[in-house]
Amino acid sequence: MNQGRIWTVVKPTVGLPLFLGSVAVIAILVHAALLSKTTWFSKYWNGKAAAIESSVKVG
Questions:
Q1: CA-based nearest residue to 40, from 58, 57, 56
Q2: pTM for this predicted structure
Q3: CA-to-CA distance for 11 and 9, rounded, in angstroms?
Q4: Which candidate among 21, 33, 42, 55 keeps its CA 20 to 30 Å from the CA of 27?
Q5: Cα-atom radius of gyration of the chain, to the nearest Å?
Q6: Contacts for 39 with CB less than 8 Å, ≥ 6 apart
Q7: Transmembrane segments in this chain: where (predicted)?
């Protein structure tokens, strides 16, 4: 493993939950930003795939 020595500084029982927790928090923040800053994302989540086609302007 390339970064195997990190576990001599941080215990895996602490480091892995912190890492996985931070990934989950980032994913939640990205989804929250998409929901609050776009008009099509909430429609997409509700099953209206045509909302994406109508919001994307080609050409």
A1: 56
A2: 0.62
A3: 7
A4: 55
A5: 19
A6: 55
A7: 14-35
Burial of 14 (0-12, 13-18, 19+ CB in 10 A): exposed
Cβ atoms of 19 and 10 within 8 Å: the answer is: no
pLDDT tens readout for residues 9-24? 889 899 999 999 999 9
Give the start-to-end residue ranges of the domains of the chain: 4-55
> How far is residue 29 from each of residues 16, 18, 42, measured CA to CA in Å?
20, 16, 15
**How far from each other are the two terminal CA atoms of the chain, in whole angstroms?**
47
pLDDT in tens, 26-51: 999 999 998 889 877 777 777 776 65
- Side chain identity at 10, as an amino acid letter? V
